[in-house]
């Protein structure tokens, strides 16, 4: 037991890192669901495309020998990636979802799955084009790490080390989440989004351009998903065209856990899932005396998900906030 | 409904007659299939196997023409997926011009596919599969020119405990047939050599964040880490372990034998060892000559399994030639080819000598232990161990 406690700071740090990524990707799922009641399964692939677009931009900066301070490079690439993946999201909505808006619920779901296969193979094609190998390893902008002396606060804790990258990742995702929250709750466009989420037809009668609002939702969801993709690539350095699948699935789970359609719920759902997963991976075999190993971390995390959903089917935040989006 | 049925019937009749036609016209075509992952994250090695086999075919085309046969390669992509491997095996079995298979790269794919080969009496020569069950199941089709996991796992353990003086070992594996097989053999031998196993944990292949398992490793404070799995995860694992300040030596089996380890792990790759069943022949004169030929044709450096793809194909073609001669220069059936390949003794290949025993294992198979160093691939050879 003392092992679990002393490793807790590091587990929390790693869990929050993973959870922050889940949370931001979950936002994309939850926003689109809130407004269209469509599960946009291509969102994981948009995240993956963002990882490749960002890494591609970074590598081509290196090829052209353009040297800038790391901060400027990071912000520039993040914005460019967000813009491109945002446009990608709008394009997908126009091509694959808008013509099917009046069709039964299952049909756009199938086209979402189709889009995600197309994106996977497109990215694979371009990634393989140059090197013949689609596992891409990018350069890291911020090397180095910081040690947080938890042991000096409480004696039983071990110190936790955090990569500078991780700090940036957590910082930026928090900024994104706060900005999004303000945007949805305090601005005119945010109000329009909430109105469309509640009732499309009535919102249209109140002179809200529904199509524009839906496009905007896709743009924002995809832009932050893509930007997170680049942060992910920076964090783990190695990416392949299939990272979107497992991650998308877990982010979707996080969205459901927090109450799908609810933005704050998605954020907390992501963080909780990340911490649960890392905690299980680090401690399962200690807790069960080696019977159940860390390979069952997903089983553990999803068991908790099922338990939550049995007792609170609307998700953790499903009821406390009535409005969707 | 009736109409649909009639159209379907006529279509199927058409296709049957089409198959009939192609049969008649291709009476003298002999194809040998390769099965390896040509797409997916193991494509680098899978392609090397295919390319090696292609060179062997190119070498023999003339000789087979003299015998009156048109020799061709039929490459299949098993996607490192057992389902795909078996589906391919079925279409290979259904193609009467295919008389043998070189494959696979993944043991988890080879084992179920081999059952299908056996049904079709097709000979399979594996350039890379090391799982013990493959030849232990009594499947007559199966042959391999590389060493087995039980040899490899224990050779790794011997090296770790005897040469690197590991006393407290942490094992991580990827839960596949290969990863579990090699790490359980490693564990057994390491324990027999007196080392303590600090933990044995699994990871999920395809994921990128292994901090959970690594936190556990950090808590257990081992002096050696063994990994049973493939390079795409091991590279990340090495990188993340070093970032967490875990600096003990790490080692993997032949699954991590790839130049991509340097790209994925970058500068973090220090004190990392790998064992391989593939000899590094890039320094022998013959190997150098062959590597030149390979580069000229494919514009790529050969990976070590390219040599084994070449040897496996050559062994198979040698058996095929024997079978043709035995059959009075007529096209042999699959069973005759199988018997001829099984009977091969003391064949000198470019990477290994080959003599098949009863089960289809190679008597001359060896384990080589290398170290990743100075971005050099294959890394410098640090140890070598034979069959028992």
**Structural class from helices and strands of chain A?**
mainly alpha
How would you characterize the largest beta sheet of chain B? 7 strands, mixed
**Largest sheet strand order of chain A:** 1-4
Please estimate the helix content of chain B. 40-55%
**Number of spatially distinct domains of chain B:** 2
Describe the structure.
The complex is a heterodimer of chains A (325) and B (388). With 325 residues, chain A is mostly helical. Chain A has helices spanning 2-36, 43-63, 70-97, 106-131, 150-153, 164-186, 188-198, 200-205, 210-236, 243-258, 263-287, 297-311, and strands at residues 136-137, 145-148, 160-163, 238-239. Chain A has a single domain, classed as ABC transporter involved in vitamin B12 uptake, BtuC (Orthogonal Bundle), CATH 1.10.3470. In chain A, the strands form 2 sheets. A two-stranded antiparallel sheet of chain A has the order 1-4. The mean pLDDT of chain A is 86. By secondary structure, chain B is an alpha/beta fold. In chain B, the strands form 3 sheets. Chain B has a 7-stranded mixed beta sheet with strand order 7-6-8-9-10-13-14, sandwiched between helices. In chain B, strands 2-1-3-4-5 form a 5-stranded parallel beta sheet. In chain B, helix 2 packs parallel to helix 12, helix 3 packs parallel to helix 4 (107-119) and helix 6 (149-163) packs across helix 7. The model of chain B is unreliable at 16-26 (pLDDT under 50). The interface between A and B is large, with 42 and 34 residues.
């Amino acid at each position: 037991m003392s092992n679990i406690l002393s490793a807790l700071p590091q587990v929390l740090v790693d869990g929050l890192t993973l959870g922050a990524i889940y949370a931001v990707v979950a936002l994309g799922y939850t926003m689109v669901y809130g407004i269209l009641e469509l599960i946009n399964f291509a969102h994981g692939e948009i995240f993956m495309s963002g990882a490749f677009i960002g890494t591609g931009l970074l590598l081509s900066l290196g090829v052209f020998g353009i040297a800038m301070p790391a901060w400027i490079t990071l912000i520039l690439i993040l914005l460019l990636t967000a813009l491109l993946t945002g446009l990608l999201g709008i394009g997908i909505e126009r091509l694959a979802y808008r013509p099917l808006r009046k069709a039964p619920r299952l049909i756009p779901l199938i086209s979402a799955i189709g889009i995600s296969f197309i994106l996977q193979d497109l990215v694979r094609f371009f990634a393989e084009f140059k090197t013949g190998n689609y596992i891409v390893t990018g350069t890291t902008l911020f090397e180095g790490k910081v040690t947080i002396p938890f042991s000096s606060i409480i004696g039983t804790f071990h110190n936790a080390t955090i990569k500078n990258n991780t700090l940036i990742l957590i910082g930026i995702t928090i900024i994104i989440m706060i900005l999004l929250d303000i945007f949805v709750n305090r601005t005119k466009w945010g109000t329009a989004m909430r109105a469309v989420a509640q009732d499309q037809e009535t919102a249209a009668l109140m002179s809200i351009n529904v199509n524009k609002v839906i496009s905007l939702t896709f743009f924002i969801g995809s832009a932050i998903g893509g930007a997170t993709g680049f942060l992910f690539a920076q964090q783990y350095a190695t990416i392949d065209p299939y990272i979107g699948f497992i991650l998308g699935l877990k982010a979707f789970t996080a969205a459901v856990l927090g109450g799908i359609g609810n933005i704050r719920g998605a954020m907390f759902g992501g963080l909780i899932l990340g911490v649960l997963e890392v905690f299980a991976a680090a401690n399962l075999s200690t807790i069960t005396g080696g019977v159940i190993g860390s390979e069952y971390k997903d089983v553990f995390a999803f068991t908790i998900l099922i338990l939550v959903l049995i007792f609170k089917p609307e998700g953790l935040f499903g009821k406390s906030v009535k409005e969707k989006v | 409904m009736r109409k649909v049925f009639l159209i379907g019937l006529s279509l199927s009749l058409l296709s049957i007659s089409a198959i009939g036609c192609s049969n008649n016209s291709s009476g003298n075509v002999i194809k040998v299939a390769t099965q390896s992952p040509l797409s997916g994250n193991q494509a680098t090695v899978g392609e090397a196997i295919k390319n090696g086999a292609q060179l062997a075919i190119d070498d023999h085309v003339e000789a087979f023409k003299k015998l009156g046969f048109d020799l061709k390669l039929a490459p299949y992509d098993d996607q490192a997926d057992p389902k795909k491997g078996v589906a391919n095996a079925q279409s290979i079995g259904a193609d009467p011009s295919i008389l043998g298979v070189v494959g696979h790269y993944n043991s988890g794919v080879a084992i179920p596919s081999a059952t299908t080969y056996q049904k079709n009496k097709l000979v399979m020569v594996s350039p890379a599969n090391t799982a013990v069950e493959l030849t232990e199941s009594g499947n007559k089709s199966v042959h391999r020119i590389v060493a087995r996991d039980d040899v490899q796992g224990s050779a790794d353990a011997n090296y770790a405990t005897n040469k690197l003086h590991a006393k407290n070992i942490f094992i991580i594996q990827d839960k596949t047939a290969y990863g579990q097989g090699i790490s359980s053999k490693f564990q057994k031998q390491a324990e027999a050599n007196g080392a303590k196993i600090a933990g044995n944990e699994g990871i999920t292949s395809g994921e990128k964040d292994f901090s959970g398992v690594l936190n556990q490793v950090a808590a257990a404070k081992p002096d050696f880490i063994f990994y049973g799995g493939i390079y795409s995860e091991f590279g990340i694992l090495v990188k993340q372990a070093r970032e967490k300040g875990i600096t003990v030596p790490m080692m993997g089996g032949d699954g991590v034998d790839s130049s991509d380890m340097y790209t994925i792990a970058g500068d973090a790759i220090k004190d990392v060892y790998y064992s391989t069943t593939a000899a590094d022949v890039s320094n022998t004169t013959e190997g150098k000559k062959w590597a030149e030929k390979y580069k000229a044709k494919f514009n790529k450096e050969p990976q070590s399994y390219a040599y084994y793809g070449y040897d496996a194909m050559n062994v198979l073609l040698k058996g095929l030639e024997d079978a043709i001669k035995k059959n009075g220069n007529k096209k042999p059936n699959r069973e005759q080819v199988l018997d001829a390949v099984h009977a091969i003794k003391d064949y000198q290949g470019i990477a290994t000598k080959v003599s098949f025993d009863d089960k289809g294992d190679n008597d001359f198979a060896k384990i080589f232990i290398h170290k990743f160093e100075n971005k050099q691939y294959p890394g410098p050879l640090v140890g070598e161990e034979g069959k028992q």
